[in-house]
Amino acid sequence: MALAAAPPPLLVTAGPKQVARGWSFPARSTRAAQGSEGAAATSVAVVGAGPVGLLTALALARRGFRKVRVLDRLPEPPAPDASVWGDPDRSYNLGIGGRGQRALIKFGAFDRVDRWSKTVVGRKDWSGEGEPKVTINKRRFLTKVIARDRLSSCLYEELRESYPDVEVQFSTECTGVDFAHPRPRLSLRNCTAQEAEEG
Ligand SMILES: Cc1cc2nc3c(=O)[nH]c(=O)nc-3n(C[C@H](O)[C@H](O)[C@H](O)COP(=O)(O)OP(=O)(O)OC[C@H]3O[C@@H](n4cnc5c(N)ncnc54)[C@H](O)[C@@H]3O)c2cc1C
């Protein structure tokens, strides 16, 4: 499947696997596209609707990119307030430290994420002898813990509400990119939940 637009589309990749495959990262071309041609006319494909892909789409939309399309082979995540999130098999938890929180604040998504996070106020260490030692965090940013998929779900909700023009397509795998063409062409295929799980 091809992405067609003028000027040529940008390709943004998210997730370590794609970077390892040598796909392009658009930091320079993004700045160039904001120049004379204008961000609004530039098509951008973001491969991967994980936390980084969705934040990238938010950042691009805030900078005026209007033709942003995000693809992920996984099915659409449940809403942040769904009951499934109590299931520990659903997704692993990750801790968001100061830098991550600052990024979420910058993109206007922090309150939404914070609502579904647990705050880590300190730690308890057992040495095996005597009483456990409790250390209370005194840092400015206390770590926020949330399931990875729920974080993605919050960012997806933020994107839909704030930038409904951005298209997010789930259950769609990008199987290749043809850079030989003047406008890079993506090969896409529909993906079942089981195939996505198997990677
Ligand atoms: C067990 C565990 C614990 C972790 N704990 C922490 C923590 O405490 N704090 C922290 O900051 N980080 C933690 N991490 C790391 C954190 O999960 C990653 O840094 C974060 O998920 C990276 O986000 P991402 O969007 O770049 O990639 P990912 O979350 O990997 O998302 C990539 C997305 O791209 C999609 N995708 C991949 N290939 C394709 C393709 N060809 N076509 C379409 N879609 C595709 C995938 O389906 C996926 O949804 C942890 C990771 C693990 C595994």
What does this structure look like?
By secondary structure, the chain is of the alpha/beta class. The chain has a single domain, classed as 3-Layer(bba) Sandwich (FAD/NAD(P)-binding domain), CATH 3.50.50. The chain contains seven helices and eleven strands. The protein has helices spanning 16-20, 27-33, 51-62, 98-106, 110-115, 148-162, 193-198; strands at residues 10-13, 43-47, 67-71, 93-96, 118-119, 122-125, 133-136, 144-147, 167-169, 172-178, 185-190. A four-stranded parallel sheet has the order 1-2-3-9, with helices on one face. Strand 10 and strand 11 (185-190) form a beta hairpin. The longest helix is centred in the C-terminal third of the chain and has 15 residues, at 148-162. The chain is globular and about 70 Å long. The relative contact order is 0.20. Mean pLDDT is 82; it is low at 1-9 and 15-30. The structure holds flavin-adenine dinucleotide (FAD). Flavin-adenine dinucleotide is lined by residues 14-15, 17-18, 47-53, 71-74, 92, 94-95, 100, 148, 173-174.
